[in-house]
Amino acid sequence: MPEGPEIRRAADQLAAAIQDDPLEEVWFAFPELKTYEPELIGCRITEFETRGKALLTHFSNGLTLYSHNQLYGVWRISRPQAATRAKDAKRTLRVRLATRKQAIQLYSASDISLLNAETLASHPFLQRVGPDVLDPTLSVEAVKARLLSTRFRRRQFSGLLLDQAFLAGLGNYLRAEILWQAKLLPQHRAADLDETQLSALSVALLSIPQCSYRTRGQKHPGPDHHGAQFRFRVFHRAGEPCERCGTRIEKSLQSSRPFFFCPGCQR
C-alpha cells in the first residue's frame, strides 16, 4: 500500500497537471456518483490535499472527491484525447477528470466518494486519523506529546506505527526505517523510553517520512547516486550488513506485516 510520501508526491503531480484549469470531462464508474458529472463540468480543481494515505480533491463548487488508493489504486496522467475508459491488463478505471490540456485517471481504487462541507467534516476515516506526518506545522514536541499521551504511551511500536489514528501516513517501510534510525525495536513502548530515546524517536517520526517525500525511497542507490536520494537502511535488506554496526539485518513478522531490523544496534 502506498504510504504518505507516495500519496503526497502523487498529489503534487496531479496538481501540476490539472489544477486551476476548467474541467471539460468528468466521468465516474460508480452509479451513485454519476449524478455529479454534469455539476462538475466547468469547475476547477482548487487543491489536492492529503490526509495520510487519503487524497482530497477540492473543486471550486465546494464539493470534494475523497479517494483512498488502498492496495491497488493508482492515479495516472495522460493527454485528454487518450483512450482510457477500458480495462487494462491489471486495473479498472474508476475516475476520469480532464481539462483541455491534461487528463487524470484513478484506477482500481474502491473507496471513493463525493462530499460537501458537512459530510467532509463528518467522514469516519477523516475523523479517525491523527495529524498528517508530512504536515509542516507538526513539531517534534507535538509528536513527543502524542507518544506520551494516555492513549498511545503503552502501545508497542509494532502496531502503533501502523495505526493511522496515531500519525496519518505512516506505513510498513516507514515503520522499519524509523525504528532503525531511533535504534528501537517494535516491542518497545513510549512509556518505557528515556528522554534521549523519546527525542530520537520523535525526530525520526518526522524526518524519515519527510526525507522519503522529498527524495523518493529506493533500496539501493544507483551509479549516479550522490547522497541526494533517500534509500532504505533495513527495509527489504534481510541478510545484508547494517551500515551502522555491520550486523546482518534480519526479517520478522510484526502485526502481520514483514519487519526488517538490525539485532546489533536495535535493542
Tell me about this structure.
There is one protein chain. The chain is α+β, with helices and mostly antiparallel strands. It is 27% helix and 20% strand. The chain is built from 8 helices and 10 strands. It has helices spanning 4-18, 37-40, 117-121, 124-128, 140-147, 157-160, 172-181, 195-215; strands spanning 25-28, 45-51, 54-59, 64-68, 74-78, 93-98, 103-107, 111-115, 250-254, 257-261. The strands form 3 sheets. It has a 4-stranded antiparallel sheet. Strands 2-3-4-8 form a 4-stranded antiparallel sheet. A hairpin with a 4-residue loop joins strand 6 (93-98) and strand 7 (103-107). Helix 1 runs parallel beside helix 8. It is elongated. The two termini are 28 Å apart. The relative contact order is 0.13.
Enumerate the strands of the largest sheet in spatial order, edge to edge or round the barrel. 1-6-7-5
Helix and strand composition category: alpha+beta
User: In one word, what is the shape?
Assistant: elongated
Helix content: 25-40%
Q: How many individual helices? A: 8
Mean pLDDT: 91
End-to-end CA span: 28 Å
Secondary-structure element order, as H and E? HEHEEEEEEEHHHHHHEE
* Largest sheet entry: 4 strands, antiparallel
Q: Rg from C-alpha positions?
A: 20 Å
E-strand count: 10
Q: Would you identify the regions where 5 or more consecutive residues have pLDDT less than 50?
A: 217-228
The share of residues in extended strands comes to 15-25%
